[in-house]
Design brief:
This protein is α+β, with helices and mostly antiparallel strands. The protein has two domains: 3-133; 171-271, Immunoglobulin-like (Sandwich), CATH 2.60.40. The protein has helices spanning 3-16, 22-34, 36-55, 64-72, 97-166; strands at 77-81, 84-88, 171-177, 186-192, 197-201, 212-220, 223-229, 237-241, 247-254, 266-271.
Amino acid sequence: MDIQVYIQSGIIESYVLGLADKEEAAELEKLRLVHPEIQQAITDFEKALETQASAHAMQPPAGLKARLFSELQLNETRIENEEGMAPVIPVNIFTNTYRTGFLKKLAVAAAVLLIGSFLLNIYYYRKYREVSKENAELIAAQSNQYVHKDIFETRTKELQNDINLLSDSSMLKVVLPGVAGKESNSAVVFWKKDTKDVYIAAAKLTPAPEGKQYQLWALLDGKPIDAGLISDCATVCKLKNIKAAQAFAITLEDKGGSPTPHLDQLVVMGKI
């Protein structure tokens, strides 16, 4: 758990103000025992409440004292101090039920305003987090669109290059059909007559099993010549340069290839 994220979630304020539900309060009670920073956050918030309450304390309206004395039918007792005359209200006035009730109402009103202020802060903070998350998701989605667009453009360019390459008049096309029992397989070899480069389109080969890989062979006078391993390419794979050949064949070999073909693993074959 990220303690700082938990502290900033608003749970501390909700707990101190008595607004957290039982599950939230129980969880915080456990966490505060093992995470000093959570206990410190609780203490800091309680102090902040006290500080804000003191800072926003209101002086009673002018004339309130006289109105209270009039309504309570009380007299002021004046005591002369070292600097002159000063009115002193007897201590028993503070225990008067009327004044106590009035002060309680003022305290409740102040507490309601204070709690409302903190609740609004928590609400807007959570909204801010939600908006920030949505904004991050939108940015990520937009970035993904740009990535997909770049991939699409790259694949399109590769495909166009392959089309241009295979349509070259110097390119010799050799079809390799599936051998007996493997008729569903096929491949096409493109052999460039001037450069002797070999390309293959092997999309119709059954996917190689785990640990296996297809290997192309050029056949000349009955002897096999390694023409390269077939990797996963989108359309056309470029393999080795072959100077001369009378046919091409593909076998299924162990991953990494073999110096000689295993004829029992012959998949496709075609003559030039």
